[in-house]
């Protein structure tokens, strides 16, 4: 198969269901395309588990979030679902100028569809994720990427969290990276 195709890792094959059904194969192909366009970093503290860079080229996943969990004796890798969520959300905000809450709701539905298409319990997945959400009072917020997009936090009027993130950004950058001043 030529490498110039839209998804060189997955063979072209006819699905035996209508195109518009949620399909694990189709979601895998979409995620492959997204992964070719973004970089993933697990080096930082990210409120609410994941976020994205200002330019959308980097997806940040919180460094404390385990890469997998066990559901019904099956190991489930979680990064792929978070990458899908954050990519969809960032695109809807930047390209269609949606408010964060609207983009987040749509991205959550895409994430849920991908989880369910892989035959993973959404309830088990969400329960696992909620254990690791960093909130305003979380002391583990010490190292924030310089280029983390603050728009979701601004749209939620989460000023206290943004201030803590700016402080962590200035004081907790990984070695070799300079701190950047506060953003509006």
Descriptive key words:
184 residues, mainly alpha, 3-stranded mixed beta sheet, globular, disordered N terminus
Can you describe what's shown?
- By secondary structure, the protein is mainly alpha-helical.
- Helices cover 41% and strands 10% of the residues.
- It has a three-stranded mixed beta sheet with strand order 1-3-2, with helices on one face.
- Helix 2 runs antiparallel to helix 3.
- The termini are far apart.
Question: Can you summarize this structure?
Answer:
Helix content is 41%, strand content 10%. By secondary structure, the protein is mainly alpha-helical.
Q: How far from one another are the termini?
A: 48 Å
What's the order of the H and E elements?
Answer: HEEEEEHHHHH
Low-confidence stretches: 1-5, 175-184
Give the domain tally: 1
Radius of gyration: 17 Å
Number of helices: 6
The amount of helix comes to: 40-55%
Structural class: mainly alpha
Mean pLDDT: 82
Q: For the report, how would you describe the main beta sheet?
A: 3 strands, mixed
SS strand fraction: 5-15%
Which outline best applies? Answer: globular
What is the count of β-strands? 5
Q: Main sheet: which strands, in order across? A: 1-3-2
